[in-house]
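An instance follows:
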Amino acid sequence: MKKLLFIFLLSTLSLSSQERKALYGTTLDAVKSINNAHIINLNTGQGTLSNNNGEFRIFAQPKDSIKISFLGYETKIWVITLDHFGIQKNKITLIKTPIELDEVKLRKNNFLGYIETDVNDVKIKEEVSAESLNLPYAGSRILTVAERRLHTATTSSGGIPIDPLLNWISGRTKKLKRLKVIEDKEKRILRLFNNYKLYINQELKILNEDTYLFVSYCEEDKDFNPLFLKIKFQWRIFYKINLKNLKN
């Protein structure tokens, strides 16, 4: 099956050369890289965000226009040429823009000097945020590292999905899914650890240095009930039942 897919890919290389290809770049200012910058291909409508290092990947072809924007910086339109697909790094430098504050006017008020009553008379303007400014992808959840890599490996800009097929054939997609499972497990363990560390130390008398190990054991045990998250005394029951295993 994989051989047939490989032959299919070779036969479509001539067509895929006309499709949009992955374009890599880095967003930065005069001092540092810019993470979570909004990058949109104006020709396709596809968008993405830069990672913690300012790096991003988006599908494009020569003559496409890429819009890069971030709050507090001038928006930049980047017109793609064939040279941008080379081995050199595409560095997109954004320029900071001064933020002008509204004029402050002092005026008389009817405040009585009591917080309980005066707070109801205070008019609060809407907070400026990505949502209020209608920025692209505002309010969307930021993907974790594992989620971002898996999303990149399994999505295509349209046309023949060359990259997803190659990643599936090479086993990269399967590997990234395993990493996603590991990341989810670590997040669950960390959540338990942060929420119940004191209880486990004080009530179950487990040493501080053994707490994370105990929580990891609980998360992996098939008899560990999710209700334990809400009913603390169930921790004690689980601990007594599994005491021998924990000591081993």
User: Anything to note?
Assistant: Residues 172-202 form the longest helix (31 residues).
